Amino acid sequence: MIISGLQKVTLLDYPEHIACTIFLGHCNLRCPFCHNMELVTNPEHFPTYTIQDIISFLKERKGRLNGVAITGGEPLLNTDIVDLLKPIKELGYPIKLDTNGFFPDMIEKLIDEKLVDKFAMDIKSGFTNYLKVCGINENAKIDNWQEHIKKSINLLMNKALDYEFRTTCVKNLHTDDDFYEIKEMIKGAKNYFLQDYKSAPDMEKLPFSPFSKDELMHFADIVRDSVENIEIRGI
């Protein structure tokens, strides 16, 4: 496991908590709009932390922090992630974990061992467009990937303590058709969030742009009657 970053305080990454964010390197996807691409492809370029570094920090922050967010990269690439989560839980911290849903067996393990209090799973797109949005060649042979996404959705909806699904909306990647598909993929879900694409200095040459508020509201309206709660973040 490569722990490649520690944000010492955040009010955004774990809503309703004063949390820190731990960044784990590497990912199985190459989403072209990713804001952490260097972390995904070259985590060795970042300062690294040991598990003991993290635990020592969290011990010092007891009473000031009340949550820990784990993100990446894709945290569940790390089959030894339990070694990080267990001592955090033993300190009494609730944990939120971000995932792309490609590793349902790991999700199930963490649910069964009660190591994650809230999962946030990215729904990248409708299945027709999924691999393109993930930056994967559509002819690539990725065994059972749709079944993995479906299983992860089902696990979170039926077994997780708390969860949310979310989609980053990117003009030139997403259309109405994606949200009609997503509507069926997450039917009956508790929380679904749309978040608009935001560019960064190293992304200015990419052929992407954000949607308007009205366009995001239109996407939300497509999905609305399939979920209990739908919101738009970042506008």
Would you write up a description of this structure?
The chain is an alpha/beta fold and 235 residues long. The protein has a single domain (3-233), classed as Alpha-Beta Barrel (TIM Barrel), CATH 3.20.20. It is 31% helix and 20% strand. The chain is built from eight helices and eight strands. Strands 1-2-3-4-5-6-7-8 form an eight-stranded mixed β-sheet, covered by helices on one side. A hairpin with an 8-residue loop joins strand 1 (3-10) and strand 2 (19-24). Helix 4 (104-112) runs parallel beside helix 6 and helix 7 packs parallel to helix 8 (213-223). The longest helix has 14 residues, at 145-158. It is globular and about 50 Å long. The N and C termini lie far apart (35 Å). The model has no long low-confidence stretch (mean pLDDT 93).
Give the SSE map:
Elements: E1 3-10, E2 19-24, H1 37-41, H2 51-60, E3 67-71, H3 82-90, E4 95-99, H4 104-112, E5 118-122, H5 130-133, H6 145-158, E6 163-169, H7 176-185, E7 191-196, H8 213-223, E8 229-233
Parallel strand pairs: 2-3, 3-4, 4-5, 5-6, 6-7, 7-8
Antiparallel strand pairs: 1-2
Number of helices in the DSSP assignment: 8
Helix content: 25-40%
CATH architecture: Alpha-Beta Barrel
| Net shape | globular
**CA distance, first residue to last residue:** 35 Å
Briefly say what this structure is:
Helix content is 31%, strand content 20%. The chain has 235 residues and is an alpha/beta fold. Strands 1-2-3-4-5-6-7-8 form an eight-stranded mixed β-sheet, with helices on one face.
